[in-house]
Every structure is written in structure tokens, then in C-alpha cells.
Amino acid sequence: MSSPALPRTDRSAGRIRSARTMPATATLPDTVWVRLRDVGLRVTPLRRRLVRLFASTRRWYTPQELQATALRAGLHPGRATVYRLIAALTEAGLCRSFPQSNRTTRYVFCAPGHHHHLICLDCGTVDSLADCQVTVPDRRFAVLEHVVDFFGRCARCQRRKIAGAR
What domains can be seen in the chain, in order of their start residue? Predict the structure, then answer.
């Protein structure tokens, strides 16, 4: 089953093109939709577009920010739709939450499979690292699972910070 492609971020203009203008090609694995159905979510066309938007922008969002981004992309999800989708994605293992010190929570879309994140604290860009280099210092310890995320400043924000200091 093919569906509209993900909206893409136009980095030069900082805008997201509408999902309706994208060619009809599948860009997320079918396991994403299967996992969402397995946790009881109806996978509607709007929810498909919203998941693709969330996955394609490579950013972390509060629910309010995701809804605002969706509105700018020509989608019109209600607040309840966004919250339900984030809850289902989290339950399905396709989204991770990051509680913030200001009592908000940001969410990152996680494609299936083991990976880590590089999260820019300035612009919110998220990059995934699929090549896990984590080793356990004590060989007598049996690791069942691990989570590693790196928070810092991306190369673009580093350049901006240096340029602003001059």
C-alpha cells in the first residue's frame, strides 16, 4: 500500500512543503503502520501524513510544536489527534520522550531498530546514529539493553555561535 511521501524541510528557507504536494511513494517501513495498529490506533490518512511529517523533519517536538508544524504543512490535526498519536507512537516503541526542566516533554520519532540520537539543544535538530559503538567496561556485567543520547550543539549552530561572538 503506497501513501503520500513525507513532507520535507526546505533547509534554505526553513519551511516544510505540504504533504499534499509530495509524490505518492511510501517512505516509512510497513512495520511502522503495523506497530501502530497493534497498539490499537486507527491509521487514517491524516495520521499517516502526521507520522511522516514527524519522521521527516528530524526534530524533537512538544505536542504543541508538532501541531503548529503540521498546520504550517497544510495538515489540520486537532490537539487530541496529536496527543493520541504521540501516545501510540511511544507505546509502539516509535517515539521517545525527553522530559525538560521547564515541565514540558519533547518527543523524538524513532524508526524501528537500535540507534542513538544526537540532539542539538539550540535548533532542535535530531540525527540518528545506527552504528552502535557502546562497549561495556566490565565483561562480567550482562547488558540486556542500553540507551545513549547525546545533547549538544550541531555544526550549523556552532558556526552561528562563533559568528555571533565576533
Answer: 1-113 (1.10.10.10), 114-166 (3.30.1490.190)
